[in-house]
Amino acid sequence: MPKYELEQTYTKITYTKDTIDHTDFEGCVFEHCDFTACTFVGVTFIDCTFNNCNFNSAKINYVAFRTVYFNKCKIKDVNFAMCDKLIFEIHFKDCILDFSKFYTLKIKGTTFTNCSMIALDFMATDLTEVLFDRCDLYRSEFAKAIANKADFSTSYNYTIDPEKTKIKKAVFSIDGLKGLLSKHDIIVQ
To answer: Is the overall model pTM greater than 0.85, yes or no?
Structure first.
């Protein structure tokens, strides 16, 4: 029987492998918690906020994120691709997401603000209307992604092949044009 937690605040908890399995959290706040050892089986987060939490290398294959905010969290090498896709809505601010995977997810309208996003896998991801605000996208992969109306105007270090990625009405800065033209081996000054 799943457990249900409503409007609780959890502070400085180090969760073990299966501590929170089969639990629904709604309106909860997690402060300085460590989820690195978790495998997350049958866990749902609804209208939850994570502040200064550590998810590095956590296994989140069976998690539902429904309007969830991550602030100043470490989320390196996490595979979001197997998350529950029903009402999937997440937002990131001041997070480290390096080497994480969003492969084939529909994350329309997601916001990434001031995040390190080195070598992320966005292959075949629906990035429609996603905001990349002041994000480092060095070596992130966008092949076969749909980035229509996405906003990259303040982000940097990205390389996107317009022949392999749909970018209709996406917004880029003049400084970011070199990331769209790099495959042509031309110099943009």
So the answer is: yes
